[in-house]
């Protein structure tokens, strides 16, 4: 369980966390197969150690599911162009305040820098269009190629901004689910300790 919690510190936009948690789940499954024959048989039902192993397996599966959802959300810009406004309101504004995330705007300068450059280019072009000048045919062809390159760069910058927005949403949700997972693990550990003490007294 400790290794599973440490796995949350891997970046969610990489596939390393998914492979790491799948490896943990497979290793834990092999461990359960080896230990299943050594569990003590009791007349009252499933022993407490068996319940512990089953709940740990369930927590590992929940953690893997959460990781898959976050990775899927980070790469969602390929299917859904823009982050919905309600997601920005609840995740990027209110959830960041609730989770005390101070650097929630850290990605925005890098995302908007290219957009500012594109706006400067448009302003320069608009100022240059005020004086009508006739160009030769070869020069007009070059200007068309430059305009096509500019449109391509603007489209790429737009996709980059969308990817940065989804990445911010993924990071905030990852922090939220990580803290909820920590609370669940702590509650389970406290409950298990109480049950163990009651079983020892009985």
TrEMBL record:
Looking at the keywords, is 4Fe-4S present? no
> What Gene Ontology terms describe where this protein resides (cellular component)?
cleavage furrow; postsynaptic membrane; serotonin-activated cation-selective channel complex
Q: Which positions, given as ranges, span the membrane?
A: 22-43, 49-71, 176-199
Top-level taxon of origin: Eukaryota
Write out the GO biological process terms: inorganic cation transmembrane transport; serotonin-gated cation-selective signaling pathway
Q: What Gene Ontology molecular function terms does this protein carry?
A: serotonin binding; serotonin-gated monoatomic cation channel activity
Reactions catalysed, as given in the entry: Ca(2+)(in) = Ca(2+)(out)
Return the Pfam families for the record: Neur_chan_memb (PF02932)
Keywords (alphabetical) are:
Cell membrane, Ion channel, Ion transport, Ligand-gated ion channel, Membrane, Postsynaptic cell membrane, Receptor, Signal, Synapse, Transmembrane, Transmembrane helix, Transport
Query: Its topology with respect to the membrane?
Result: Multi-pass membrane protein
Q: Which Gene3D superfamilies match?
A: Neurotransmitter-gated ion-channel transmembrane domain (1.20.58.390)
Q: Which stretches make up the Neurotransmitter-gated ion-channel transmembrane domain?
A: 2-130
Keyword Cell membrane listed = yes
Q: Which CDD domains match?
A: LGIC_TM_5-HT3 (cd19063)
Subcellular location(s): the record lists: Postsynaptic cell membrane
Stated role: Forms serotonin (5-hydroxytryptamine/5-HT3)-activated cation-selective channel complexes, which when activated cause fast, depolarizing responses in neurons.
Q: Know the name of this protein?
A: 5-hydroxytryptamine receptor 3A
